[in-house]
Amino acid sequence: MSECYGRYFIKNGKVYDREAFDDSVIKTGKSIYEVVRIIDGVPLFLEKHLERMSNSADLVKCKMLMNYESIRDNMRRLINEEGNNHGNVKIVFNYGESDSSYFYFFKHSYPEAELYKKGVHTILYHGERENPNAKVVNSAFKERVEALIRENDAYEAILVDREGYITEGSKSNIFMILKDKVITSPVEAVLPGVTRNIIINLIKGAGIDFAEEKFHYSSIASLQGLFISGTSPKVLPISTVNNYHFASGSNEIIEKIIKLYDKEVSEYICKNKI
Question: Which residues in the chain land under pLDDT 70?
Fold first, then answer.
């Protein structure tokens, strides 16, 4: 099944029907990407996504194929052509035989409202991404983790490095509550997620105790709660990690962070709606 979920995609500035999309091209050579959530026609935190994309390009020694204005214009064009004001758009820069840019609606899965109270099931996965700071297409790693997620009927896999420390989710960042302090893995070991960075700033601004520090998975039972952060889930409580249970959905600190982030999203949309 193709990654291109909409009726159209844009390649190198030209609009094509979905039938012309070739998934194998993106997996050939080297590709960097970003997934941007569209709410009410607004690409959420687009400038921050593009800052991270530029950082990914630097890390893999490639150049950005477009400037900010061109990327923004392509996003708007795709939204208008598709007639879709909600969803996730994937931006891909592929460095193969010829450098190419792609914009297309990417299949998304947004948690149902009840999961923000109930929380979601997760599993531990002992493995690391090769270059955690760069958002690079790595199909083999993705397929291994997703197979395990399906086998365990889980929402996400929490990655554990070779030393036993929790780093991030397979497609998200992970935050933990330990003795009323919010902790998350040091940025050197994870993808510096857009949502992650915004949440950290909101936590600090609200005066909540916070630290970026290593946390060993063997001590997971000592946590008061955990949550996922990401483009699609936003701030999503975790109810279980393997066989460990947590009342994350009713944790006061997590509830406050959810409200802070939702307010930030609403204000951004109001400021950037055309």
Answer: 130-139, 274
Residue 223 and residue 212: Cα distance in Å, rounded?
A: 15
Q: How confident is the model at residue 156, as a pLDDT?
A: 96
For the chain, the structural domain boundaries read 4-106, 115-269
The CATH code that applies to domain 4-106 is 3.30.470.10
- Tell me the per-residue pLDDT of 260-270, one tens digit each, with 9 for 90 and over: 999 999 999 99
Report the C-alpha gap between 35 and 44 in whole angstroms.
10
Cα torsion angle, 107, 113, 114, 118, sign = positive
Query: Which of 239, 236, 238, 244 shows the shortest CA–CA distance to 220?
Result: 244
Q: Distance between CA atoms of 20 and 218, rounded to whole angstroms?
A: 48
Architecture of domain 115-269: Alpha-Beta Barrel (3.20)
pLDDT at 132: 62
pLDDT recorded at residue 86: 95
Q: How many CB atoms lie within 10 A of CB 134?
A: 20
For the entire predicted model, the pTM comes to 0.90
Position 210, amino acid: F
pLDDT digits (tens, 9 = 90+) for 67-82: 999 999 999 999 999 9
- Degrees, nearest 5: CA angle 73-58-8: 30
